[in-house]
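Posting here for the record, re: adenosine-5'-triphosphate.
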Amino acid sequence: MSDFILEMKHIYKSYGGIHALSDVGLDLKAGEVLCLCGENGAGKSTLMKILAGVETPTEGEIYINGRPVRITKPIDAFNEGISMVHQELVQIEEMTVAENIYVGRFKTKAGFVDKKALRENTLKLFEELDIFFEPDSLVRQYSVANRQLIEIAKALSHNCSIIIFDEPTAALTIEETEKLYRIIRRLKQKGMAVILISHRMEDIYAVGDRVEVLKDGENSGTLRVSESKVDDIVKLMIGRTMTQQFPHKTNQVGDVIMEVKNLTNSKISNISFDLRRGEVLGVAGLVGAGRTELLRAIFGLDACEGNLTLNGKRIVNQSPMDGLKRGFALVPEDRKDQGLILNQSILQNIVLSILKKMSAWGIMKPKKETVVCEEYIQKLKIRASGKNMIVQMLSGGNQQKVVLGKCLASKPEILLLDEPTRGVDVGAKAEIYKIINDLACEGISIIVVSSEMTELLGISDRILVMHEGYLSGELSMNEASEEAIMRLAISHEAVG
Ligand SMILES: Nc1ncnc2c1ncn2[C@@H]1O[C@H](COP(=O)(O)OP(=O)(O)OP(=O)(O)O)[C@@H](O)[C@H]1O
Ligand SMILES: [Mg+2]
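Prediction output follows.
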């Protein structure tokens, strides 16, 4: 019997001319939590999709407990005890929680779905995981984070011995992330093997036993978590250590460009603040505090009461078109739904937002388009075969970079960023921070919503903190710290 519950050997995968994986190997022991890391486009999701039977490798061998297996369809993977929680959730919104978990496997009693058994099984699963959702409620009503937990329950319902998580914490709140860590530790104790894809070092150090790093579709190295520093992991990922994650701030904060007064709707209450030219204004708060809703109201996506004054003039953005016309741009939190035309190329997507600028005097300038597009592909290190690659074919993180590139290229006067580095690798994060600083230097004012406090502390000129729809405080960079932010984020007193 082999020491390993899983071995993948000499795995190759190419898409047309692109080698997503070449000669990759991976092994795993029972009770081990293996973190799979690497830059956006390194091949992490592809390798795991092969294991889960969603993709077929061009070449390669897979062994379970030393026995060679053939996995060509998801059902083969299930039969070998392998379950995967995907990066992009695939759920049927109009079905109930229980139906989603047992889809295609309903227990039938004389030809009818045995609703009672379905419900009981679902509740038992939730109990094991220490989570609860009403089995008969529709999946549609739940947040991405909660749906993720439902997906985990589904993965476990297959009685698996290997479970794969593809970036599960990207959409989770701090508390939900803690819950997931608890679940992973519990699975480990039960002797299951876990593979966790994540860009977050916190995840690796919280639950990981070992890290396997991929780089450009090849193995870059493996490290024991307890014996490695963040720098060691980063070096395997990007080929060098990162001296500095945050840029030296060089922007000059100017005069007030926008005044926000008593902004109110069903999600936000009485929010007032000023934004200055060339300023990076951070917005902190727990998930659900109304940060996204604040950006949406400013941009014109949601109706609100109150006043916006831009360059001394009262304005109302009644629609995103109003916002765009007045020089606002928004990078939404949920980029998949709101940001991209998936079946078009990177070029077409990036150019969409700058068409106006490119077609001055009514004439399109294709050359200029190409230059701008290539500039952003390079700046954001978008891993693609070229500017004409269809966005759908890009890895998750690279798709996010395209949305960001699209907004940045539009050179707005006021840039609204909602979790701009979510799902993006460490190297690209540093690039995005640098671009934010560069834009501020050009006089662009930027409001950044982020759940990563280190990020806000590293790039902001000032930080607003929200709690349950209110502004609970404002911190200058002298006053700001993780503790100060947290204190305000859970405080019940509104300011202003
Ligand atoms: N259907 C496809 N057609 C062409 N290329 C593809 C396809 N699917 C993936 N690729 C390419 O394979 C490479 C690896 O992608 P993969 O999704 O595995 O990356 P990843 O490591 O999961 O990245 P991320 O951190 O961004 O999620 C990328 O260069 C991607 O563009
Ligand atoms: Mg991926």
